Amino acid sequence: MKMNKVDLSFQSCKSTYEEADVVIFSVPMDNTASFRPGTRFAGHAIRVDSFGVEWYSPYRERDLNEFKTADIGDLELPFGEVDEQLKIVYDTTKQILNDGKTPMMVGGEHLASYSTIKAVYEKYPNLHVIQLDAHTDLRETFFGRELSHATFLRHVHKFLGDGKIFQFGIRSGEKPEFDWAASGHTHMRKFDFEGLDKVIEKLKNVPVYVTIDIDVLDPAVVPGTGTPEPGGMQYKDLLWAFDQFQKLNMFVGADFVELSPMLDPSGASTAVAAKSLRELVLLLQMNLENRK
Question: What global pTM score does this model have?
Fold first, then answer.
């Protein structure tokens, strides 16, 4: 699989694929969106908006252009072919890992995370996953499909197993999903991020993948998402979570999903996503730097 250089890249991430340590790619996929579609447009919108975001992060006290980051753009996906799309996401993530690089995936719907997590798990069998999200995503099936944005984490559990998934900010789902999580299959913190710092301390020395659904934030902060859920977190809470991720010793991959830019004509939701992507890339790069 050839990794092409794109004309429009995220901020200063203009390194070639060959020289990069972290590789950004986006997944224009929203086939299983159950309410409002539009996440397929997120990658392009974030790249355009990123020119209004400073390269320097006062939170990390580091500059993005200090590091070698490649942005290979939107993956080319066959429209409507969900299984084939998932295979392409998996194959891309697998190649990035095999080439000794760290994946940073931008959704797209949350189902895309199934493929990236699966590929990362195959490289790191002791992988643990931290999910920041409004929704449980633990249904066995949804509208007749086993794999959808509402079921992806239940199917991730099938290869990760108990004790490997940590959920925060959850405030929506069916009762059987909450019951299934509470029976010991996942660690679920409802409504907020309390206890995330203690989980990070516990996972400090094991490989960790972080998956963030933008709807973990309150719709007053981010209205541009397909399934907004009132009662969510503020952006400062997310910045606090990033501070915790900085303490990880093996931060091996991440994604940021479910932005639907056209649902927020103000552009505020895309601005939040662009700034968050800067922070996540810096966290991944700083983690690699510390491991060298």
Answer: 0.96
